[in-house]
Amino acid sequence: MAPKFSNATNEIIMDTKLIQQYGEDILCYRLRTATQKKRMQYEDFNKRLIQLHKEEISLYQHQSNLGWEPLYSPVQKGWKRFFVLGDDVSRSKHAEFFQNILNKINTYGWSHRKDFMIKKRSFGRKKYAVKPQKLLEPSELHFAKLDFNDREKQMFHEEFNYEKWNKGFVKKYVFSEQWRFVLRVKPNVITKVKKRDEVIESRLKWIDNYLERNDYRKKQNWLLHGHYQWIGRKGFEKYNEENPLENKPIERILDEIIVL
């Protein structure tokens, strides 16, 4: 079995052969062999993919930092729903205390319908039901970041909820007196829009088309993270094959078997 040498060792051996054949003056021309030229092309291509990734991240950051501009003709897009203090709580002396808690655990919902009704299937029939909305139930780490004082912490109790993505039970902190807050629906009026830069958007579109059209995203992900990104069934030949039995009744399948 022939010994294996590193790239640096191979280059030293090649330089020695060139010196023996043409003399030391040949080194000033920086000649490259076919293998070295091909390796340099691969390295330049990999560097270009990494540079495109850095440029894409930088452009997205610039795009997100453009800020907002006022919309001179405000438009309504659907309805928004959020929690507010109940009438009796807002008139009590503890209104400020509960408002401080609500500011940290309030949630916002959106719907194209004012009544927030959604379709649900019940026993094979479609029915309309009100879209559920709950107060924020922070996890243990999130609860510590909300910076509640000791008196406010007493208004919460611990619950353990099963989460599929965590594959186990997770501790949640739930507000004990949820009857103090009620839902309120208001028109979702858009008064400002995100600023846009046509040059940035054009460049981002070109990068995305270049990487997607040539299927360079997987190669780029391997260079950055050391593995290919799983893209589901797309790209796997065994999943792209058509199933001859798909969408066929059993009687037709049996008839085709008998004929064969």
Largest sheet: 3 strands, antiparallel
Strands of the largest sheet, in order across it?
A: 2-1-7
* N/C terminus separation: 54 Å
| Overall pLDDT level | 82
Total strands: the figure is: 7
Share in helix: 40-55%
Share of β-strand residues: 15-25%
Report the total helices: 10
Point out poorly predicted stretches: 1-5, 231-240
Shape: extended
Oligomer: single chain
User: Structural class of the secondary elements?
Assistant: alpha+beta
Provide keyphrases for this structure:
single chain, about 260 residues, alpha+beta, three-stranded antiparallel β-sheet, 10 helices, 7 strands, about 45% helix, about 25% strand, extended, disordered N terminus
Structural overview:
The protein has 260 residues and is an alpha+beta fold. It contains ten helices and seven strands. It has helices at residues 7-22, 34-64, 87-90, 95-105, 140-145, 150-153, 198-213, 217-225, 237-240, 250-259; strands at 68-85, 108-111, 117-122, 125-130, 156-163, 168-175, 181-194. The chain has a three-stranded antiparallel β-sheet. A two-stranded antiparallel ribbon has the order 3-4. Helix 2 packs across helix 7 (198-213). The two termini are 54 Å apart.
Question: How are the elements arranged and paired?
Answer:
Blueprint: H1 7-22, H2 34-64, E1 68-85, H3 87-90, H4 95-105, E2 108-111, E3 117-122, E4 125-130, H5 140-145, H6 150-153, E5 156-163, E6 168-175, E7 181-194, H7 198-213, H8 217-225, H9 237-240, H10 250-259
Antiparallel strand pairs: 1-2, 1-7, 3-4, 5-6
